[in-house]
Design a protein that fits this description.
The complex is a heterodimer of chains A (660) and B (190).
Chain A lengths: L1 H33 L6 H5 L9 E6 L6 E6 L3 E6 L21 E2 L2 E2 L5 E9 L2 E11 L4 E6 L4 E7 L6 E3 L9 E6 L3 E2 L10 H4 E10 L6 E9 L3 E7 L7 E7 L8 H4 L5 E8 H9 L4 E13 L4 E13 L8 E7 L2 E6 L5 E6 L4 E6 H9 L3 E5 L2 E4 L1 H4 E6 L5 E6 L4 E6 L4 E6 L5 E6 L4 E5 L12 E6 L15 E7 L6 E8 L6 E5 L1 H4 L24 E5 L2 E9 L2 E3 L2 E6 L3 E8 L8 E5 L7 E3 L4 E6 L5 E6 L12 E7 L8 E4 L2 E3 L1
Parallel strand pairs in A: 14-19, 37-40, 39-45
Antiparallel strand pairs in A: 1-2, 1-35, 2-3, 4-5, 6-7, 7-8, 8-9, 9-18, 10-11, 11-13, 12-13, 13-14, 15-16, 16-17, 17-20, 18-19, 21-22, 22-23, 23-26, 24-25, 27-28, 28-29, 29-30, 31-32, 32-33, 33-34, 36-37, 37-38, 39-46, 40-43, 41-42, 41-44, 44-45, 46-47
Chain B lengths: L2 H13 L9 E6 L7 E5 L4 E3 L1 H8 L14 H22 L2 H31 L20 E5 L2 E7 L1 H27 L1
Antiparallel strand pairs in B: 1-2, 1-5, 2-3, 4-5
Helix pairs in contact in B: 1-3, 1-5, 3-4, 4-5
Classes of the chains: A mainly beta (660), B alpha+beta (190).
Chain lengths: 660, 190
């Protein structure tokens, strides 16, 4: 009896322990999804209908090749700006006018992998004029004009491959840079891959930006040892005039990099005194190398792009720029190269490192002056690690990647492996707060967080995985951004929202800096597109051999003309549509049945051209695709396609008026 | 007339020059789709504002397009104003309240005729609609109000005098005031 009693007691105890354990488990489960929620988060991100967000956020669209624009704090997506990828939604890359924007030395490429958005700066602070973004796969940098939110320039980067440490800018947007992530032979040629150490080189390109037009031109390329240049940032304040590039694979491996490029304890930050390089270049140094790269420019008045092929680039070797380039050892496989708002501290998250090194610019210059070097690499001196170091941040989480600053003396580092954001004091190097993010954060972003004056109110975690965060959508899930309030001592998650593509990086800016110069329509009197018509009286259809040009107008709610005859099989038809509206938010769209092409969306005052090669005889309807008015549905017309060699004359009309 | 009367007459005659530089009437159209506002301003010699957009919208209801160059009033009005400026100065020189009265009567007539003409113009635009218009609402006309507001389908049309009209009005009032003052002066001195 006694025995059973003890047994039942111990069974009871066991069950009790299980229940307690289970309740702990379920608590921690719950906590992981609602962690740090204190109740008033919703009101902090709620923007009343009709009211504006405080910040614009420009997010890289990752493998979508585009850039997305969000309002923060609400997390509402406002627009996807087509950049490197075709966009049938509005005709980017499909209209005759926009095709040249996607031209490269390899010909037309409909896609790229967009990585880092970078706002132009004046005096080290984002100014809201342009936002740059890099194409990683076929190296390019694009410039988006924030007056129109349109990609207005794309420049290809020769001798580069995997344009990753790009397009970071200098405090007055004198330069944007492009460091190669994959070293390749310079100039590229047929060599064995195993000749990597001898034949491959890492090119760092300095692209001059015109102060008023924003026009980019490659000023020079520095040809360095074949490391993988990952990220970069310019100096500011005391370090103004310098650029800092992180690199991994100082092992110079060409295969199984995940092992072979992870052997050394330290890789490097390459510090380049580009103002000194400028002087050296002005002194006549450098070699013009023959190459080939495309420079594509959009013109807002002709509403069309031109693509120019450039055949030469100035290159500099380490021996040309002696005293202007130094390697700083940096633990291990560093990613972000980040400079604090004062310009004194340079930090680099080593993906495989257990500490975050913080270098002091004053110590770097001292080490250079006192020649504290530990050998050299490819002709570039390697400075002594300790001599440059201000301190190390201990226990920064696993896989520290990227750091931004709040302007209040704190740095925030994303830790990919431990999936958290770690806040630390720049002076003391002490970790003061940490917050988990969901899941696997890459970059993070604070508005102005890489500038002289961060607007340190919010931080956005840009996460690679979402798993159970949203309603599932099959095997392919969205990636996400998480909004974190950093206005207080403790970080608080306020919101998370899905993103397009992979949000590698993002930059934010107070909205009024962007809205002040934005335009609402294109003025029709400024339209210099050679195919534009300024009045419906100029609408016409012209045959030139087997090419038919349709010069037509769109106004609410009809096309002028809307009946077209005389098109024959074997013809190529160009629809040159001018939207004659001068009213805000009245685009007209255009599509033709059976066209092996996209639609086009034409803004008020703009002219766009869509190509059509009819493939069968018959009546092909055309219509407006953008709901423009109460009679949008009536905004339609017909094109008669006749057999090859038929004698149907060109004829066009609107209503009862016929013209031949 | 008193010196101050003559000065006031000259000053306010010249004040009429001002109406060459400011609009005299303002018609604004309010609708949910136009948070940024939509409207037109009438000057003595031109029209400004969102005429093209208004014309574009009006075609749905079959309203004639507004072409300032075909509106005769805009050619005539500057001469009329010019006349009143010159006549005012003349009244001051002639120095007789009798002529001041004539000026006032003519001015009031001109103002009334002007408003009536404006009404007719609005009536014509609001009623003479294209019978093939896409949107036809039984019994509906689109005449904007002379002064005040009126709902025209999705738009609320608000028609109000603008600065130029206030200059007219003030000038008229001053002239009348001067005249009354002069009459009193005469009575006293008699």
């Amino acid at each position: 009896m006694k025995k059973t009693n003890t047994l039942s007691k111990s069974i009871f105890k066991g069950i009790l322990i299980l229940i307690i354990a289970a309740s702990f488990y379920s608590c921690s489960e719950k906590d992981s999804k609602t962690l740090s929620m204190s109740g008033d988060e919703a009101s902090k991100v709620y923007i009343e209908p009709g009211k504006y967000d405080e910040f614009y956020y420009f997010m890289s669209g990752g493998f979508s090749g585009q850039m997305s624009v969000y309002g923060i704090p609400s997390g509402r997506m406002l627009k996807v700006i087509p950049v490197f990828s075709v966009n049938p939604e509005n005709g980017w890359g499909y209209t005759e006018e926009s095709k040249p924007m996607l031209n490269t030395s390899y010909g037309f490429i409909p896609w790229d992998d967009a990585h880092h958005s970078e706002l132009s700066q004046t005096d080290g602070v984002p100014d809201g004029r342009w936002v740059f973004i890099n194409g990683n796969n076929t190296p390019r940098i694009a410039r988006i004009d924030l007056k129109t939110f349109k990609t207005t320039e794309i420049i290809e980067i020769p001798n580069s491959s995997g344009n990753h440490s790009s397009p970071f800018t200098t405090p007055n947007t004198d330069y944007v840079v492009a460091g190669t992530r994959f070293s390749i032979p310079v100039e590229n040629r047929d060599v064995p891959i195993t000749s990597y150490k001898e034949e491959f080189k890492g090119a760092l390109s300095f692209i001059k930006v015109d102060k008023t037009t924003g026009r980019m031109n490659i000023d020079y390329q520095i040809i360095t040892p074949p490391y993988d240049y990952d990220l970069s940032h310019s100096g500011k304040g005391p370090s103004d005039g310098w650029f800092f590039f992180t690199c991994y694979n100082s092992e110079e491996a060409n295969s199984l990099l995940e092992v072979n490029a992870s052997q050394k304890d330290k890789d490097f930050i390459l510090a380049i005194n580009y103002k000194k390089v400028d002087e050296i270049v002005k002194g006549g140094a450098g070699k013009e190398m023959s190459t080939k790269y495309a420079h594509n420019i959009w013109n807002d008045e002709t509403h069309s792009a031109t693509s120019t092929m450039i055949n030469t680039v100035k290159t500099l070797l380490p021996e040309d720029i002696k005293g202007a380039a130094y390697y700083i050892p940096c633990p291990k496989s560093p990613h972000g190269a980040d400079v604090d708002p004062t310009g004194e501290y340079i930090t680099a998250g080593g993906k495989l490192s257990t500490v975050i090194p913080v270098f002091a610019f004053s110590k770097i210059t001292k080490a250079i002056a006192e020649n504290k070097t530990d050998g050299e690499a490819g002709g570039i001196p390697i400075l002594n690690y300790e001599a440059c170091l201000s301190g190390e941040v201990k226990d920064p989480g696993l896989g520290p990647l990227h750091t931004e600053f709040d302007g209040k003396g704190f740095a925030y580092t994303s830790s990919f492996i431990s999936s958290e954001v770690v806040k630390w004091n720049i002076e003391t190097k002490q970790v003061v707060d940490r917050i988990p993010v969901y899941y696997s954060i890459g970059h993070l972003s604070i508005p102005g967080g890489d500038s002289k004056k961060p607007w340190g109110k919010y931080l956005i975690a840009l996460n690679k995985m979402t798993k159970d965060r949203y309603l599932p959508t099959g095997p392919e899930l969205t990636q996400s951004a998480q909004l974190i309030d950093i206005s207080g001592d403790k970080m608080r998650i306020l919101l998370d929202f899905p993103t397009i593509g992979e949000p590698h990086y993002a930059q934010g800016i107070p909205a009024e800096l962007v809205t002040k110069d934005q335009i609402r329509i294109y003025k029709i009197e400024d339209n210099k597109n050679p195919h534009a018509i300024k009045s419906i009286l100029d609408a016409r259809v012209e045959r030139n051999g087997s090419v038919v040009h349709v010069y037509f107008a769109a106004t609410r709610s009809h096309f002028t003309p809307d009946n077209i005859e005389g098109v024959k099989l074997g013809d190529t038809v160009y629809f040159h549509m001018t939207n004659l509206e001068q009213d805000w938010d009245i685009p007209h769209g255009f599509a033709v049945m059976g066209n092996n092409n996209s639609e086009m969306l034409v803004m008020p005052g703009e002219t766009c051209t869509l190509k059509w090669v009819p493939s069968r005889v018959g009546i092909m309807p055309m219509y407006c695709t953008d709901f423009c008015s109460a009679l949008h549905q009536e905004m339609q017309g017909y094109i008669r396609v006749s057999a090859q060699g038929s004698d149907v004359p060109i004829k066009f009309s609107l209503g009862d008026e016929k013209k031949e | 007339m008193k010196k101050i009367s003559r000065i006031l007459i000259v000053v306010f005659s010249l004040a009429l020059i001002g109406v060459f530089f400011v609009p005299i009437w303002d018609i604004s159209l309010q609708a949910p789709q136009y948070p940024e506002g939509l409207g037109m301003k009438i000057w003595i010699n031109k029209m400004s504002g969102d005429l093209d957009i208004i014309n574009g919208l009006n075609h749905y209801i079959g309203m004639k397009t507004i072409h300032p160059e075909s509106i005769k009033e805009l050619t005539v009005m500057p001469y009329v104003i010019g006349f009143f400026i010159a006549a005012g100065i003349f009244v001051s020189v002639l120095n007789k309240p009798k002529f001041l009265l004539v000026w006032i009567v003519l001015f009031v007539i001109a103002g009334t005729v002007g408003l009536y003409d404006f009404y007719l113009w609005e009536y014509d635009y609001g009623h003479n609609l294209d019978p093939t218009a896409a949107i036809k609402v039984e019994g509906m006309n689109y005449q904007p109000p002379l002064i005040g507001s009126k709902n025209l389908l999705n738009f609320k049309a608000v028609s109000m005098p603008d600065i130029g009209s206030y200059i007219f009005f003030l000038t008229g009032l001053i002239f009348i005031y001067v005249y009354i003052n002069e009459k009193k002066f005469f009575k006293k001195s008699l």
